Target: Dephospho-CoA kinase
Amino acid sequence: MIIGLTGGIAAGKSKSAKYFESLGAYAIDADAIAHELTAKGMPSLDELVKSFGGGILLSDGDLNRKKLADIIFSDEKAKLRIEKILHTHIISRINETISQNIKKCNIVIDAPLLFEVGLDRVCDKIVAVRVSYDIQVQRLVLRDKLNVDQAKKRISSQMSMGEKVELADFVIDNSGSKEDLKERVKDLYKLLTSGVKII
Ligand SMILES: CC(C)(COP(=O)(O)OP(=O)(O)OC[C@H]1O[C@@H](n2cnc3c(N)ncnc32)[C@H](O)[C@@H]1O)[C@@H](O)C(=O)NCCC(=O)NCCS
Ligand SMILES: Nc1ncnc2c1ncn2[C@@H]1O[C@H](COP(=O)(O)OP(=O)(O)OP(=O)(O)O)[C@@H](O)[C@H]1O
Model:
């Protein structure tokens, strides 16, 4: 089974993916793949530099992730150019990883842009992780050391949480504690793997 895991920024996808992993699933992390593909010496990084100039690099040649994030979350046209460079490669890597692991175990694809890039089409079931807006802002501010306005801007640059919830088969609310989240993931995984036909 391939489970798609999505949700807004800082909703708790990575945490949920870790819990799915602890239950035996194989988690594919789209953000981690994007990182690998933009490491020093990778063709995708060269393409980004060709398009945006050497200013997106740190002095040691690594990608300046903060700078790229600032561009992505403030300039819609530039965001589309970056996505055009990276998304085909990210999707190919995800598909490759699925092929290598699908016979061994259930797969969870943790992807913030699951619907936007069409990865929902390879999933058997889709789970959206949601949190209340205030908690989302709070967790994003805390984790990424942003101010409230920056956090809100990042949230509003994405497909809304409501739309994701609407498109998903299951929703996990992560407004409670990490322990609550763990329990919810456990219950859902039990249901998904129970053999009961879920329509
Ligand atoms: C912007 C970058 C440099 C920020 O890197 P950083 O290490 O700080 O954060 P990380 O990669 O963990 O991303 C954090 C979150 O930002 C959000 N985000 C990232 N890229 C995008 C995007 N193109 N559109 C909307 N939200 C995005 C997601 O919610 C993601 O989970 C990085 O996310 C990136 O290279 N993004 C472009 C690739 C992409 O579209 N990735 C999503 C794969 S489905
Ligand atoms: N239930 C919770 N209680 C408190 N903090 C939480 C909870 N769930 C997640 N967090 C924290 O909130 C932040 C966001 O969680 P996480 O990184 O899992 O979100 P994400 O959806 O993967 O984010 P992104 O879209 O940026 O990849 C992290 O710092 C995480 O430790």
Q: What stands out?
A: The beta strands are 2-7, 26-29, 107-110, 125-130, 170-173.
